[in-house]
Amino acid sequence: MTMLSDIPNIIIFGESGSGKSSVVNMLAGMPVADTSNSVSGCTFDSCAYDINVRGKIMRLWDTAGLDEGESGRVPHSESVVKLYKLIQGLSSNGVNLLMFVMRPRLRESTLNNWKLFHKIICQEKVPIVTVVTNLEQEDDMDQWWWRNKDELDRRYGIVPDDYACITAVRGKRMPTGAHTLDKEFETSTKMVQRAMRSSCLENAWQVSAPEWFKTIVTTAYETRMCRSRRPIERRERVIGGEAFERLVVIMGERQARILVEEFLEE
């Protein structure tokens, strides 16, 4: 019998429409996650699914889609806050793996999402697997990675611990009952499973709070001849912590402050 604390936590995140729920369904071998594009059907809160991955039960957290904000630079704050709260809420059992699902065409918000969760919130302590979806038109899906690997690294700083270039759909049903993309679908399933098993932390990383702000204390001293100094004024000022400063680089100080204030709301 598998104890609750023994089940690895894998958090799937990415933009709306990237195929997160389809990947969950593919791994589950059945439709367990809603893939509807309607407002009422879209994944909004996180949903957990226990899935057998090559003989090991893993808990996949299908999260709200991270959408590009109106400025084109900032992920949708409400979805970002929900995902941040989920990661915080897993502090007792920890996080074993991040799965970043993306479409072949990169947007700036794609990079923002990667940096925010991998580099800032999880502090690069949690391995990450990149899953590139919607590649069923490629003659060899894996070649997409090798054509774009250098640009992902050099231009976007996306360097995962492992990757899978896949299709998460079976295609059209044929008169025989088979589907046009069955072979590609089965190969994709195996690729994602392999990446998950090879990259998942054996011992989960216990989530620690990022340093959004810190308090600096300065003291002014009075010095008298032949006497020791004594403090005459003590001041405190709040400045951005390391995590906040890194967030500023991504989206600017104003947007970073707004987002962090939402993070810190009770």
Entry summary:
The chain has 266 residues and is an alpha/beta fold. The protein has helices at 20-28, 77-89, 108-121, 141-154, 182-199, 242-251, 253-264, and strands at residues 9-13, 47-53, 56-62, 97-102, 128-132, 162-165, 213-222, 230-240. It comes from Macrolepiota fuliginosa MF-IS2.
Quaternary state, please?
A: single chain
Tally the beta strands.
8
The amount of beta strand, in percent, is: 15-25%
**Radius of gyration (Å):** 22 Å
Q: What is the spatial order of strands in the main beta sheet?
A: 2-3-1-4-5-6
Q: What proportion of the residues is helical, as a percent range?
A: 25-40%
GO molecular function: GTP binding; hydrolase activity
Keywords: Hydrolase
InterPro entries: GTP-bd, P-loop_NTPase, Sigma_54_int_dom_ATP-bd_1
Protein name: P-loop containing nucleoside triphosphate hydrolase protein
